[in-house]
Design brief:
Chain B is an all-alpha fold. Chain B contains twelve helices and two strands. Classes of the chains: A alpha/beta, B mainly alpha, C mainly alpha.
Amino acid sequence: MGVGIEVNNLNAWYGANHTLQDITLHIPANEATALIGPSGCGKSTFVRCLNRMHETNPIAKVTGEVKVGGEDIYSETSAVEVRRRIGMVFQRPNPFPTMSIYDNVASGLRLNGFRNRRSLDEVVERSLKHAALWDEVKSDLKKKSGASLSGGQQQRLCIARALAVDPEVLLMDEPASALDPVSTAKIEDLIFQLKSQYTIVIVTHNMQQAARVAERTGFFLNGRLVEFDSTHKIFTNPGDKRTEDYITGRFG
Amino acid sequence: MNLRIQEPRAPKSETAEPVGGLVPVAVPAPASGIRSFLQSRGSSAAADSTFRWLMLASALSIFAIVALIATELVTHSELTLSKFGLKFFFGSAWDPVNANFGALPFVYGTLVSSLLALVLAVPLAVGTAIFLTEMCPKALRGILSFLTELLAAIPSVVYGLWGLLIMVPLLRSYVDPILIKLLGWTGLFAAPDFGIGMFAAGVILAIMILPIISSLTREVMTAVPHTQREAVLALGATRWEMIRMGVLRNARIGIVGSIILGLGRALGETMAVAMVIGSSPTIAKSLLAPAATMASVIANEFAEASDDTYRSALIEIGLALFLVTIVVNICARLLVWAVTRGTPAREA
Amino acid sequence: MASQRKISAANRHWRWFTNNLASGLAVLSTILVIAPLVAIFIDLVYKGASSLNFSFFTKLPAPVGETGGGMANAIVGSGVLLVLASAIGVPMGIAAGIYLSEYGRGTKLSNVVRFTADVLNGVPSIVMGISVYALIVVPQKGFSAFAGGVALGIMMIPTVARTTEEMLLMVPLSIREAALGLGVPAWRSVLSITLRTAMPGVITGCMLAFARVAGETAPLLFTALGNDFWSTSLRQPIEALPLQIYVYALGPYDEWHRLAWAGSLVLIVLIVVSVSLVRYVTTRGVLKGAT
């Protein structure tokens, strides 16, 4: 089951650039939450703060509190442990090129020391089924490399890889923006299925996508969270004028 | 945050066929065993730290190597350093028997042979670079640059073997007599000529430093932006004029850098020179006379150095060689770096 | 008007002339540069190939003046030295390269390290040899294969470090992020993901360094020294192919010269194969599928 995320006064910097300012919100468990906003508004940075990927950049800085399932991930817990609980799917599919499909999915576990062969087989199969990729690759699991799949398949492979470590939260940074419409539809269906199991946060520049898959939506602008509410309200009756301007396409 | 949440529009596939293996029923929850396993793995902070330190230590070993060389050389040339001081490099008498060591013949030999090599190699190397970057048809370029790369990979001792057994007899039979006849009046080419000697060393060195000068010159020439070439061509220049004004002028500094790098290589070249230079610790005006360089005397005489002073003298020559090549290399690298720095950084 | 046209005609002719002269000189230069290479290869094959028989690879050198010996001990000796050198040079070089790319990227320290490595590559190998002589041979009061291996190994480190760094830099950030995002420890990610992705290029870099030290003679002159008999012991002097070639080339006997040519041919074949492989891998795209 997924957990909720509570963000309090999150501020983030890239060097001198104050990328996120005083973000406070509560992401409910077992739901999909979409984050929308124009390019450069900070939504990607925000999501990367949720699994402490933002700090991998040497000039990055973060202050504030992010509680995942009640625990502040910026306290003593190491970033590595945090990232095992929070999975991430990136904008461009990035399967490991030297590994087979099987090895890709198993990598999160294997590289953390998991050895049990039979359990791995089960996990790989289950993850690929979750990611709606099993039927397409089940006969070539160990023969084909991760990079030999199509774009949409690669992204589902990355989702399977992220799911294999059984995260509590799944972060998705514009997961379908590099894909064709058919693959995009498949990914969106996937999110629908996965919601019951995990908490999903999805960054998207596609408002229709947000409307299709998410219960809640947050609108970011210039590093601030302008509005955070149910998707229905955001898209039919937004409270803030800026949100309305964005939704109706006046900018962005 | 307490608004009634309305379910978003259902996706198409809920009523249509499952998409690509999508299982429409609730998937059984994964065993929590994975989560607890991962939790038990700990933070790996210690392993990460140790690993990072190991990598850092290896990187620092590069400094350690330089320090090592410097200390060993200084320590083991102590004897002659204190006995002769700087006069060591100005004394022209190399007399191991009487423990009188003057290294000037070798300094002279190193300088002259390297200069000769540059005089012969630079025009050819730059010419080749011009041909390969500006004139060569694309298909040929790959093969020719591969061949020049091979030239750089041939070991010094093989050059020496070929130089001694093939090139030197050729020089002695065909080239040297012509040089004596035409240029003998300068005093630079005089009989007797045995083939081996300063000139032979200069020629073999030239062949050896050609590839490095050529490939670096090509690199700096390629770094010159196309806009420069186009600007000159637009003024109605011929190809040679375009090369001269649009490319070479801009690549000047880098080319000088690559020449200095070639010089650095020539200064330290040991085996091939040791095999064709004649190993005579003398200074002669004629380039056809046998001579010796700093590197060649170490190679040729170290095994016979029976007493500590003799060895110390040779090691001191090695120390000088070390310092000189480092300085030359630093200057060269700075020049080349200054020019090619403009090339785009790699994608991180 | 007419004189102006004459001047410009003369000028045009002159420019046309210099243009063609320059082109001709450039072509001539290229020919003169390639010619010695071709000559060396032809001579090597012509003089060396016929001696590459079974006894060359299996027999010891014959007593002075006699024919029919081989360079077996030199080949084996080179093998021993190169294994030791690689054992030293490859791990440390790769580790240094990992530091430059993964931990020190953009820092001043790594810039200085990289610069120093390049400068170190330009230090004459005989200087390296004397230093190891002073470091190992003198205290141990004897020449040894160990000293020779150390000398060659130290020479490999800067080359391997630079090529490793270059190859690691080519691994896209997205792959590293994927590994981090999974909660893989940093050290594991560097080794099992980043290094593994760059492996083909890293290996060819090692091969390049290997080929380079395989032909080095000067560092061995006062460390490994050479040995006329079978020896693989690390504590004894050992023979090596380039060393043997050097001695034989300087000797007066035709038999020795014949062997020197054959040995050189073996060396060159080894080197040509390595350089070609490196070219093949790097021009075909080292990181297939990683882009």
